[in-house]
UniProtKB/TrEMBL annotation:
Belongs to the chorismate synthase family. GO terms for biological process: amino acid biosynthetic process; aromatic amino acid family biosynthetic process; chorismate biosynthetic process. This is Chorismate synthase. FMN binds at R123, S124, S125, N218, A219, G262, K277, P278, I279, A280, T281, R303. Pfam families: Chorismate_synt. One of its GO terms (molecular function) is chorismate synthase activity.
Length: 339
């Protein structure tokens, strides 16, 4: 289950402390101009070592494309790429090779496979999300080439239960980092420019595709779109979005539906929230058990983020772009004679 998507698909590979991470993108239309500077700029937003708020691990995250691109454009064949790891410090994890970190994937991977890569979490590490950013950047370029230059904007809405200025929220992250602790929060994302008609009911509803994409991101704990849980506390007379015809198109006077009705986009802005837990690895003693099921105390070492939110922004946008391109390509098979 390392493949995401229906027509536009990403199969990713690699571990946090392995030689490389990367992927194979299948289903990307031919003729898309590959803007390497744009793709690298998206990776730079996510890369470790790029901000004082995050980990001290410093990776250049330079992507190398191996196939599927010729003379600067996609060929329609599988696009292979790799990002080589250069700043691993696997020795930092030797003290936890036989113990399970609380709320981490250590135990569940061990229970499922009977073995695990303890170096930085192996496959469960958020390092694998760099491959998603590459695929998301290409998806943005493909959408633009198809005539849909969507504006996808993810922002931090809340940190540790506080909605404040960027400076205040960054301060909470730095406080947690100084304490050897971690903090979670909420990212809100808006997608503008989606036409009406994208989405595949009933099992491929657009909001279900978005939910699956967001909940596949490391540390994601919740998803809501439109008015979400708050809207469920009101009556239908307060929540229904009235229709109107303006400037040659159907619009809604309010947008409590979040741009999606019946699992299909209605042409209004799509917006949603993603909740992220505090990162599981903290620099405090915690009770656990080892691989022999004996009680022990865990006090991890290494270099870790104290909050996923700053580096998760391009990941949320990338997953949203992949979903939108996938929905766009699928919509072209919905009826004969038009898109």
């Amino acid at each position: 289950m390392n493949t995401f998507g229906n027509i536009y698909k990403l199969t990713c590979f690699g571990e946090s402390h392995g030689p490389a991470i990367g992927g194979v993108i299948d289903g990307c239309p031919a003729g898309v101009e590959v803007d390497m500077q744009f793709i690298q700029s998206e990776l730079d937003r996510r890369r470790p070592g790029g901000t004082a708020l995050g980990t001290a691990r410093d990776e250049a995250d330079k992507v190398e494309f191996l196939s599927g691109i010729f003379e600067g454009r996609t060929t329609g064949t599988p696009i292979g790429f790799a990002i080589f790891n250069t700043d691993q410090r696997s020795r930092d994890y030797s003290s936890i090779k036989d113990v399970f970190r609380p709320s981490h994937a250590d135990y569940t991977y061990f229970a499922k496979y009977g073995t695990r890569d303890y170096r930085g979490g192996g496959r469960s590490s958020a390092r694998e999300t760099a491959a998603r950013v590459v695929a998301g950047a290409l998806a943005k370029l493909a959408l633009k080439a198809a005539g849909y230059p969507l504006h996808i904007d993810a922002r931090i809405a809340e940190v540790g239960g506080v909605r404040g200025t960027e400076e205040e929220m960054n301060g909470m992250i730095l406080d947690a980092k100084r304490d050897g602790d971690s903090v979670g929060g909420i990212i809100t994302c808006t997608i503008c420019g989606v036409p009406a008609g994208w989405g595949e009911p009933v099992a491929g509803k657009l909001h279900a595709m978005l939910a699956a994409a967001m909940m596949s991101i490391n540390a994601a704990k919740g998803f809501e779109y439109g008015s979400g849980f708050e809207g469920c506390r009101h009556r239908g007379s307060e929540q229904n979005d009235a229709f109107a015809f303006r400037d040659g198109k159907v619009v809604t006077l309010t947008n409590n539906s979040g741009g999606i009705q019946g699992g299909i986009s209605n042409g209004m802005d799509i917006y949603f929230n993603v909740a992220f837990k505090p990162i599981a690895t903290i620099f405090k003693q915690q009770q656990s058990v080892d691989t022999s099921m004996n009680p022990c105390v865990v006090e991890p070492k290494g270099r870790h983020d104290s909050c996923v939110l700053p580096r998760a922004l391009p990941i949320v946008e990338s997953m949203a772009a992949m979903v939108m391109l996938d929905a766009c390509l699928m919509s072209r098979s919905s009826r004969i004679g038009g898109y």
